[in-house]
Amino acid sequence: MELNDLQAQRASKLERLRAAGISPFPTQSARTHSVGEVLARFDDLAAAETHLTIAGRIVGARRIMGKIAFAHIEDGTGTLQLWISRADLGDEWFERFRDDLDSFDIIQATGTLRRTKTGEPSLFVSALTLLAKAVNPPPEKWAGLTDIEERHRQRYLDLIVNPEVRQVFQARAAAITAMRRVLDTRGFLEVETPVLQPIYGGAAARPFTTYHNTLGQQLYLRIATELYLKRLIVGGFPGVYEISKNFRNEGVDRSHNPEFTMMECYQAYADYADMMRLVEELSRAMCLAVNGTTTAAYQGQTLDFGGEWPRLPMSEAITERTGIDISLVSELAPLHEAIAANGLRVERKTTWAKQVDELFSEYVQPLLVQPTFIIDYPVDLSPLAKRKPDNSAFTERFEAFAAGMELGNAFTELNDPFDQEQRFLEQGRAFAAGDDEAHQMDLDYLNALMYGLPPTGGLGMGIDRLVMVLTDRPNIREVILFPHMRKRDEV
């Protein structure tokens, strides 16, 4: 590796330590307490003159003041000051600390606890050990790594210097734990389904394609877990869920990443109304876990997840915002004419369903700030959902929205194998006409339906977007530890 001047200086210190018989990367640590434990029990441990050992990274600047030195170390549970004197530590290691150790080095410190004259909790050090020498120095501005592109590329450095970023991912873990708790309590079984699939399905999306050499098979990274999970309901499980990585070969923007985390669940003898109540319960529990309340501040708005969400039919929402009643304008050409007549500016689409979706996305979705269910989607937009008994042109489907983003999608599952076959055939015709996101024919899934799928409610929730909202992060990259990035030479 080519080293710059600062890296070379640190590497020379590393070699100097080795020459003195000191390993810069020893195999063991003798830590007895985390910094968090020390801070929580500081006065008791100090009064007992407990001799203890902590370990962590040197953060901030080291201060050398003659025969006294100060530093702070951080271990992921907290930060504590080290008070280091030549008299207590000895000449050899005091000079090593002064000359050979640097900010970002990971060290082990042994001593007793006392407060300084200013009252700061401190470890008065009697022994030091180097655990890992950092060759890379901290960012030029210790206040933090602020370049967003670099923060996402070097998430490890972002986590070191921006503690609030760690808090986001701790909140994410708390939210997922709360989600699991609700589902487990309700009797859902957590399962795992294939990531590599011979037929992709369960969503309208382009897949990533790969190839299995031994079997000579083209395979796809899953775009959803839906069709496999519903097979398990056919098999007799009363309720199943999976928290999974899904992959969609699509663009990258503030709310999309090609690899994302989704929770999907399916419940026998339930419908989309049951799924709405489940979304409300899950969102409430997750918001409480992250914020300690059922409200979340997001980009200047206060979102309330505590009550019952409004339920607004899609056709009514579009009519209200555009003046077009999609229940009456059910063909593509008249829809294009109505859009022009109403002076609406939307991208022109090649199918009626996609044009309706574009109208909704442009004129309705941005206004859905408070948690809201948009219900009763057209059949052409919902190839896996059951038709409404009183209006066969629409389905028992809803999407959950908040902060202008879709957070979830659910429906009463279509369990008529012959209706499902026709929907797949219609999707196949759309694919042949150029819709590369259309659903694929899945004969094995149809075969499963022919054994009988009970009335079933299904739900998918995007965990990344939920965490965005609950932690007030404007971009999905802020809640994914290692988001997809362009190559450096393409930036």
Extended strand count: 20
Count of helical stretches: 16
- The rough form would be described as elongated
User: Distance between the terminal alpha carbons, to the nearest Å?
Assistant: 24 Å
- What is the CA-atom radius of gyration, in angstroms? 29 Å
Determine the strand fraction and express it as a percent band: 25-35%
Whole-number tally of structural domains: 2
Residue-averaged pLDDT: 95
Structural class, please? Answer: alpha+beta
CATH superfamily of the largest domain: Bira Bifunctional Protein, Domain 2
| Largest pleated sheet | 8 strands, mixed
Low-confidence stretches: none
Characterise the protein shown here.
The protein is of the alpha+beta class and about 500 residues long. It has 2 domains: about 5-140, OB fold (Dihydrolipoamide Acetyltransferase, E2P); about 160-310 and about 370-485, BirA Bifunctional Protein, domain 2 (2-Layer Sandwich). It is built from 16 helices and 20 strands. The chain has an 8-stranded mixed β-sheet with strand order 6-10-11-20-19-18-15-14. The protein has a 5-stranded mixed β-barrel with strand order 1-2-3-5-4. Strands 7-9-8 form a 3-stranded antiparallel β-sheet, with no helix packed on it. Strand 12 (about 295-300) and strand 13 (about 300-305) form a beta hairpin. Helix 7 crosses helix 8. The longest helix is centred in the middle third of the chain and has 23 residues, at about 165-185. It starts with a helix and ends in a 20-residue tail after the last helix.
